Amino acid sequence: MNNFSSISVKLPNNPYEIHIGQGALNNFKTFIPPEYKSHRQFFICDSHTEIYARKIAGDSPLFVVHPGEAAKSFTVYQSVMSFLLDHKINRNSLVIAVGGGVVGDLAGFAAASALRGVPYIQIPTSLLAMVDSSVGGKTGINAPQGKNLIGAFHQPCAVICDIDVLRTLPEREMKAGYAEILKYGLLGDAEFFEWLDENAASILTLDPKITSYAIQRSCEMKAEIVITDEKETLGQRALLNLGHTFAHAFEAVMKYDGRLLHGEAVAVGMICAMELSAKLGLMNPQNIERVVQHMGRLGLKKSISDIGLGQSITADNLLEIMRGDKKASSGQIRFILMKDIGKAYMDNEVNEDDVIALLSNMMG
Ligand code: GLY
């Protein structure tokens, strides 16, 4: 099937295309923007995605990192920079990230900072990276003080999503990635949610047409949001963080060691955001039941008890972590709340007592 869809991210200074379809990697060269076709390529991947990188790298230099969040460290960043500089990267070079969110963030930041910025292409190999982290130009690494605290906004010059590479993705990661697709329906497109409610099971079994459309619609929505608020200063881009204020707290407790995947934390976080919205009288609680049933049918994590935070963790502990989130503005925690399915908005004025009461109840 040579049936690819392309979405334009129409950023005034950095426009680029996202190409989606089965077998897209076989057409890799055709998707390189004309102005970069003769650039020398530098590939960055991990040992799980090396097979895809080697398929397209030819004789180009290629750097392989260990899989996992630990690759977003100073040490690994330094090795990537040494690799690029040792191989004489210059402004006529093109960095190509082949991997999930970790590789994309790391390679993107290396591209942002090498020689003050060289172009790069994202080839996401996980569902989560295809619909979220590879699009929109957020790049970075972690610091001992917290996740993603060192980074840059650096837009890729193209994103290439080949759904064939998802065939080797573990089911658990497919489900976690699906949560970010569901997020788009919940935050801004009730019709998409209805479509997902009918079709989501076929995404998990990788029906090519259904999966391509789900990725396409998610990327369209992300592109629309990113072009209105590229650097997350106007509130619009924050909508992409539906469920994330809760999710980041769950992830911090679980220490990013693989027991809780980001998408799993987001799935439960979105239910918390809906519960908070209902508690504040903003949204009909029946919507929560619909989404919980949808998640349940797909086997997603959907309640705090599914996470296994441990008996010693309290609602106060979670709130404390939320206060320290880099997105809390002047000590006030930022929540994305919902008025309905498809109608999310940012709220900086939620009373912390309501959050404590909600979490205590949900942790019951
Ligand atoms: N993942 C949220 C964003 O890109 O803004």
Descriptive account of the structure:
There is one protein chain. This protein folds into 2 domains: 4-168, Rossmann fold (3-Layer(aba) Sandwich), CATH 3.40.50.1970; 171-362, Dehydroquinate synthase-like - alpha domain (Dehydroquinate synthase-like, alpha domain). It is 44% helix and 18% strand. It has helices at 50-57, 74-86, 101-113, 127-133, 171-188, 190-204, 208-228, 244-254, 262-279, 286-298, 315-324, 352-363; strands at residues 5-9, 16-21, 40-46, 62-65, 93-99, 120-124, 138-143, 146-153, 158-162, 335-340, 343-347. The strands form 3 sheets. A 7-stranded mixed sheet has the order 1-2-9-6-5-3-4, with helices on both faces. Strands 7-8 form a two-stranded antiparallel ribbon. α8 packs across α9 (262-279). It is globular and about 60 Å long. The relative contact order is 0.11. Glycine binds at residues 132, 136, 138, 237, 240.
Structure characteristics:
single chain, 364 residues, alpha/beta, Rossmann fold, Dehydroquinate synthase-like, alpha domain, 2 domains, seven-stranded mixed beta sheet, 12 helices, 18% strand, globular, binds glycine
